[in-house]
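Homework help board

Subject: predicted structure for assignment chain

Our instructor gave us this sequence and asked us to write out the predicted structure in token form, then describe one feature. I got the tokens but I'm not sure how to describe them. Can anyone check?
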Amino acid sequence: MKIISRKEAKENGLTRYFTGKSCKHGHIAERFISYGCVECAYKKLSTPEAKAKRKLYDATPKAKAGRKLYANDPVNKLKAQKYYASPEVKARRREKARTSECKYTGKTKQYIKDYYNIPVNKARNECNSQKNHYKQASPSWADVEKMNSIYLERIWMDNIAKHAGWKVRYNVDHIIPFIHDRVCGLHNEFNIQIISKYDNKIKSNYFENN
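My token output:
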């Protein structure tokens, strides 16, 4: 480790420096410019009293606002992206996910079951699943502008029917369904059509070659 004085570190805009000498507690380690020995600081912060104090502070609005401000900073976002994109971090996260066991207690399982039985949460989960299906079934060559124009036309037709007092409503349907036992249609401009909500319910995921 390169030896550098506190003054030189401060001039170079560094947060730490290393003198090669031990602190008053005998640690030969880096030192913070604004605090002191790194080992002493970590030791002090790892005590139960310090952890409890930190937990209380993290729950305050000031701490939450600070974390949000830090997370939304473009520089910090770029640092996080680089960190999580590195091969070492990816390998470590994969290994951790592979080796770690999911330890759900009976109480936790019941909570999850009750959570998804609530209509709002159930609808949100189904909506997220549908978004994932769309994402997986969308090819890279799909024309997003044409697809958006079809969806906008469906909204325009709905508004016309609503102002005219008609009961008919419209949906964007996949001609070849992408949720089917035998086929998987793509989510692109050639496989979507506007049909009435009633016809869409009758059609469901029916395919002509059934």
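Reply (TA_rk): Your tokens look well-formed. For the description, you could write something like this. The mean pLDDT is 82. That's the kind of observation they're looking for.
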